[in-house]
Amino acid sequence: DVIKRNGSVVDAAIAALFCNGLMCPQSMGIGGGFGMTYYRKSDGKIFALNAREWAPEWSNATMFHGSGDASTLGPLSIAVPGEINGYWE
């Protein structure tokens, strides 16, 4: 339907990703991120998009040293979702 309404292939892929996020929220969705490779046939260029989650602004390389499970449990384990920003890119 997206392509029939003059959307691009990328628009259709984004629509499919939104649907998958609704059907499989435990595996993907707007609270996470994704990676995408795109080939533009008109000029043969290949693009890679990294829309994965990223660390909060105040994080640093040593914040988990000696902290046990802090990187996987608790408030320090939360990342900033990248999915919606990736759709925009």
From TrEMBL:
It comes from Caligus rogercresseyi (Sea louse). GO terms for cellular component: plasma membrane. GO terms for biological process: glutathione catabolic process. This is Gammaglutamyltranspeptidase 1like. Transmembrane segments: none annotated. It comes from the Eukaryota. Pfam families: G_glu_transpept. L-glutamate binds at R52. InterPro entries: GGT_peptidase, Ntn_hydrolases_N. One of its GO terms (molecular function) is glutathione hydrolase activity.
